[in-house]
Description:
Chain A is mainly beta and about 110 residues long. Helix content of chain A is about 0%, strand content about 50%. In chain A, the strands form 2 sheets. In chain A, strands 2, 4, 5, 6, 9, 10 and 11 form a 7-stranded mixed beta sheet that branches. In chain A, strands 1-3-8-7 form a 4-stranded antiparallel beta sheet, with no helix packed on it. In chain A, a hairpin with a 2-residue loop joins strand 5 and strand 6 (about 55). Chain B contains no helices and 11 strands. Chain B is globular.
Amino acid sequence: NAGVTQTPKFRILKIGQSMTLQCTQDMNHNYMYWYRQDPGMGLKLIYYSVGAGITDKGEVPNGYNVSRSTTEDFPLRLELAAPSQTSVYFCASSTTTSGISEQFFGPGTRLTVL
Amino acid sequence: GEDVEQSLFLSVREGDSSVINCTYTDSSSTYLYWYKQEPGAGLQLLTYIFSNMDMKQDQRLTVLLNKKDKHLSLRIADTQTGDSAIYFCAERGSSNTGKLIFGQGTTLQVKP
């Protein structure tokens, strides 16, 4: 099992450009999450999905979009990049929301918007 | 709204005990977690505690939960240089979405 994989690892964007951060998991998990991590701020939830075809906003969804056409993939789209979106982005997945409900994290994508 | 607070930095000597503290506001939290993040990596679950417990021990790790004060702590006994990392406290509320609220993370520096 590769677990949760994210691409790219690093990216520099110019203001106004768009890009898609890819996230794939091979654990057949229903639940998937996108977080951003800013220095000293912890992780903030951007969007989450409870299954294929279902997505919902988290704490900080503005400027982002997601889709969940398959169980495995949960891409995050930035349409008009802004310097405030400079951050490290983590994708996570879990098999259930009952019991321990451990979230498994990808290695992250470090994005800089100049 | 829901909030989780941690101190940002802790420095200890190798072999000492480390205690990382966390406070949270959501009284309906079901599980509370400690995640570890090593440099350049994602987060990994270190340990957790169910809200009806007040203590959990797992080898060198001891988690204490004071539900009345909404205070969680992680004690690492005999801290090693390999324990140097960022430690995140997180809480899960009673919703069925599995959403976690994370603290800011405590950077643990272990000096030889």
